[in-house]
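Complex record, two chains
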Amino acid sequence: MDAAILVIIAVIFAYAIRHYRFYWNRTFRVQEDVSQSFAGAYTPSVSILCPMRNEEKVASRLLNSLVEMDYPKGNGRYEVIAIDDNSTDRTSEIVDEYAMKYPFVKAVHRSGSSVVSKPSALNAGLTFASKEFVLFFDADYIPPKDCVKRLVAPFTDPQVAGVMGRVIPVNSPETILSRILDFERAAGYQVDQQARHNLGLIPQYGGTVGGFRRAFLASQGAFDAYHLAEDTDMTYRAYLSGWKICYVNAAECYEEVPSKFRQRGIQVRRWAMGHNYCLFDYGLRTIASPFLRFWRKLDGIMLLGVYFMPFLTLVGWSLGIYSYLFEPPFWSPLLFALFLTLSYNVVGNLALFSEVGSAGYLDRRNRAIWLIPLLPPIVLFYVLVGSRGFIEALLAHIFVRRRRRRETPESRRKNQKSESP
Amino acid sequence: MIEYLFLLGAFSTMFLLAFLPGYLEYRKPRDPGPLHIELARVIEPRSEAIRFRRTVEPLANSQGWSQKQLWGTSVHEKEFKNSRGSLKVMRINGNITVPAGSVVESALIVLGELVSQENCRFTEMVYVKGRSKIGRHNKLTAVTSVGDLSIGEESEVLSFLDSDGAVRIGGGCVIGGPVSSGEAVTIEGSCNARSFNSRVINIILHSSS
């Protein structure tokens, strides 16, 4: 048991070092934003995909932002593809209104689809995307006018497959949870993503406020329609085939974050499942990849393990408490204290402390930093929800995903026939 | 027993004190967010030049310049220091003509007009209040001019070329940054630049005979 605790402590210690490295780099070192000197000067043709499912409350807001975007719209250089994904409210009407009014807006309607998911909606939209680069915005996002110019600037580097902008919660004043999530996002983007970008590690494509070179998307086929983290999936597909992702801190965009714990729990559980699917799919391939140098491999593995950490922490806590109470070797109390100190800093890879503080400092939000002491109780919540997500992902991977992959289209049709009455 | 209760009380107080700032900010928020994004903001191609002007203009009015004679005119020099290092600045109150082949290793503030002859090299940025006429084969870091700006053939500029007035660029020039003008950009022959930003852009191609 002591050996297991030592291994867990070693893993958590590695994450702690990683976080402090990022914090130090972002706070005190020179920042990498060379690509932004091309922002505005480089305006290639771009398709913008907006998947929407029952988004009547926010669809107009996003589409307004996109039609008013500061980007050359002549000569077919700019198109907005609004994908109404099986909506049952007024979303389809709103989408049609914009398509009728603006020649560069296309409306794609999906109805009666067998698979209703964001990746499958994106695949439908991609069929109609004709431009050199494809960017994605979810319906509850509000991009400023310079966002697209800033996002496409890194594509001047031919090695860049994808880009990712910074997300900022717009509804943070709503509840204490949304305020804390505001800080988490700041740490995740302003510090974590930027530091990974600075250090040449693996900045991650986050599913929205970002996009890809169409040549890369074409080489990859399509998004996995059943995946719960198609963003992480695409990030690893890019790195494992020799491309890279660029993080653009200057491309800021507002989003809405959950303001209730129940919503947040569902979100974290879904992310945990999707992220762990990627761990199962790409863990070994990341280690073996000929395209990644050592530090990128290490960061890649640690990034994949982010949503495994809550489960590992829960196991560690349980073992630690058991060891402390029932089988204390002479060094156990010290080890237990060390374990608690380390996990306090890194649980769930949320960079709750050093990186959050750094983000508050960089964003000049000195007073909001006072909220940091309220973060530890949230840790417990993430540990429990993240652990559940990991166990569900493991079971789904063993019993559903592997079987689905073994199935050929022919056998899938046969199964469907035999199951139908 | 009382000692243990005292210790428990002291521990609990210290433990709860850690949460006090969070509780205060939660009860009486002074920074509830969100972080401000100017949704109407656009990328201004002249932003680098404008930023440089905003830095330079107060410097030009500062005190403590030393005076000397150079190229037949009186120039003022001063070294500015900040946390990143130091920068030598040369100020000319009137017009100046920089002789052919000169190397200027200070940032240049010209409050009159600037004329440079062939093969001059300016290793720091140049700010001109009047008109600027840069000669052939010059090498510059960046130029911003309130008056009209012309640059001779086959010159190289590392960063921006900016003017409130008209900009005229000779053939074969290479401009590493944006070229921007408040009136019109005229390009004579072929040249390379990151971007041209003006409401009017004239291209004059000389046909070879």
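Note: Strands of chain A lie at 46-52, 78-85, 105-110, 133-136, 160-169, 210-213, 244-255.
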